[in-house]
Task: inverse folding
């Protein structure tokens, strides 16, 4: 009896762990609820930013004073720099042109800092360094000097993060620290920037506890600080908590930072993605996938190459966590099934013993035979279930939930018709028409996802042909068959056999399409795929 009790306890624990996600604290659950509510108002917060931009543009157009117009254009740049990269760069250049027309060296230097910020976001560190080296600090105001030092500090820290290896990381970090030290001489403890820069400096030098104290001081001293600034401070605190082993607090900080990012309509790489990573580790894969997709949409909208690279380094981590969560759940179910089987065998042994003691051997053998048959069916069901799970685990987190629901309905229909012996109806149910429809839906999903990543693909693809040979898909979110072949090539899938397998073509058909397209192109055949790979 003690053995059976122990097995029951173990089975209960495995089922409890396998069937439920680890529960978050009440605070985390409340923050996630606030984040979901805030994300539902994304359009509203974005409209506020666009209204501010429109108002500033109208004022700059109406301004007659050159310095006033320059300041207004600079404010438009500030609105765009965390919202839309290409627009931020355009306005940074306009600020420089305006300063150049005025002949104001100080404003020209400040505008160069703005241009350098954009170059950094695009990963053009060499160009940003050259731009900053051309800045002349004579005559710059205290505000402009603060911008100069903070931009230089950010440049060296971005280069340190990009290199990631010694001795370059330490060298760049030390250079960044020197500019922060100089910047802080222009600030006082009454300035919010002093606290945020000091906290960031502690983080760079791995003084994480000091960073937490400093950043908490910022939050308590400046409760009405700019929402975007608070988002960055909360993100810094999250990383400090990670490095001190307090992941629960780190998640709370990332969630709050994501809320502030949404309220400020920030589209540059945001805390939402890092929150998704932690949520995936906790087992809430659906929520994590939703947040990750939203973060991917944001960075695609922001449209800065360096930020896309940074996000691309993190995406596989999220997917790996998702895979691990599903694998862990599968393993727990398998172990629970094994324990159930062992328990079942123990019960059978006990029944057999009781029957033998009561001289009812024949009845016991009948029971055992029935139980064994039931166990065989259970094992067959488990093998089938595990096969399905293996297929599901191999999918990416972008798997279509509607498709899974359709498959589930199909399985239930087939099972019901088999039980009812409706074999003719069953044949109609599983005809190839539905499969072809699903294949088309798969292609449509591929096209839409690909065009989200490469929104100008069709336009740039058609530039490789004369006007008469250019093709436009029937739907702006779809690709032609030829385009789809080269879309796969753009994703790095160059093997014709793999392309043919995905598109349900023969290898000969794929090669024929490729040759026909290249022959129509205005570029040489050998260079065509190189041009395809340059499409962004």
Result:
């Amino acid at each position: 009896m003690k053995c059976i009790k122990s097995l029951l306890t173990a089975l209960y624990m495995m089922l409890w762990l396998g069937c439920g996600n680890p529960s978050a604290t009440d605070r985390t659950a409340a923050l996630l609820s606030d984040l979901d509510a805030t994300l539902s108002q994304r359009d509203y917060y974005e409209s506020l930013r666009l209204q501010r931009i429109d108002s500033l543009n109208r004022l700059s157009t109406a301004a007659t004073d050159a310095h006033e117009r320059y300041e207004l254009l600079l404010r438009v740049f500030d609105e765009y720099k965390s919202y839309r990269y290409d627009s931020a760069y355009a306005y940074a250049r306009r600020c420089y042109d305006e300063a150049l027309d005025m002949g104001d060296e100080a404003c020209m230097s400040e505008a160069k800092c703005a241009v350098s910020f954009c170059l950094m976001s695009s990963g053009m560190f060499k160009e940003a360094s050259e731009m900053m080296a051309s800045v002349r600090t004579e005559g710059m105001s205290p505000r402009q000097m603060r911008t100069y030092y903070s931009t230089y500090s950010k440049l060296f820290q971005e280069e340190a993060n990009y290199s990631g290896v010694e001795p370059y990381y330490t060298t760049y970090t030390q250079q960044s620290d020197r500019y922060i030290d100089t910047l802080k001489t222009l600030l006082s403890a009454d300035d919010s920037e002093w606290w945020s820069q000091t906290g960031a400096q502690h983080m760079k030098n791995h003084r994480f506890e000091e960073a937490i104290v400093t950043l908490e001081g910022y939050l308590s001293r400046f409760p009405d600080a700019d929402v975007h600034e608070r988002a960055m401070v909360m993100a810094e605190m999250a990383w400090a908590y990670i490095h001190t082993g307090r992941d629960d607090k780190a998640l709370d900080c990332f969630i709050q930072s994501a809320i502030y990012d949404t309220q400020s309509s920030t589209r540059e790489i945001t805390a939402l993605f890092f929150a998704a990573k932690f949520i995936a580790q906790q087992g809430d894969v659906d929520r994590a996938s939703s947040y990750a997709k939203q973060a991917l949409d944001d960075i695609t909208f922001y449209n800065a190459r360096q930020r896309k690279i940074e996000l691309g380094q993190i995406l596989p981590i999220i997917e790996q966590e998702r895979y691990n969560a599903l694998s862990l759940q599968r393993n727990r179910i398998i172990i629970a099934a094994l324990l159930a089987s062992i328990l079942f065998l123990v019960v059978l042994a006990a029944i057999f013993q009781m029957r033998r003691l009561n001289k009812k051997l024949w009845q016991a053998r009948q029971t055992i035979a029935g139980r064994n048959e039931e166990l065989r069916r259970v094992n067959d069901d488990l093998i089938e279930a595990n096969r399905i799970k293996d297929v599901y685990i191999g999918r990416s987190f972008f798997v279509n939930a509607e498709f899974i629901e359709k498959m589930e309905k199909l399985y239930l229909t087939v099972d019901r018709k088999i039980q009812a012996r409706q074999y003719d109806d069953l044949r109609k149910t599983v005809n190839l028409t539905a499969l072809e429809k699903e294949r088309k839906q798969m292609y449509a999903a591929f096209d839409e996802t690909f065009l989200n990543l490469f929104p100008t693909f069709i336009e740039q693809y058609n530039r490789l042909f004369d006007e008469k040979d250019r093709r436009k898909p029937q739907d702006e979110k779809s690709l032609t068959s030829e385009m789809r072949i080269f879309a796969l090539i753009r994703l790095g899938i160059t093997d014709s056999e793999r392309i043919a397998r995905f598109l349900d073509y023969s290898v000969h058909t794929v090669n024929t399409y490729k040759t026909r397209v290249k022959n129509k192109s205005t570029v040489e055949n050998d260079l065509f795929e190189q041009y395809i790979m340059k499409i962004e």
